[in-house]
Design a protein that fits this description.
Blueprint (H helix, E strand, L loop, with lengths): L8 H13 L8 H11 L5 H18 L1
Helix pairs in contact: 1-3, 2-3
Amino acid sequence: MVMGRVKTTLTKRTGEELYMSHPDKFSLDFDDNKKALPELAQINSKKFRNVIAGYISRLAKRKK
């Protein structure tokens, strides 16, 4: 079993809501998702934006 970083509830909830409401805007690529986030949500922190983009990339890989 591989140990990874634990995502907070806020990260998961935000990522899942954005992915479910705009699945066509996101892809499997982290950089594309990072660029798509500012037009869909107002995220003030660069670190939080990156964490959400990574989580959405992971969600997209699981869904496909």
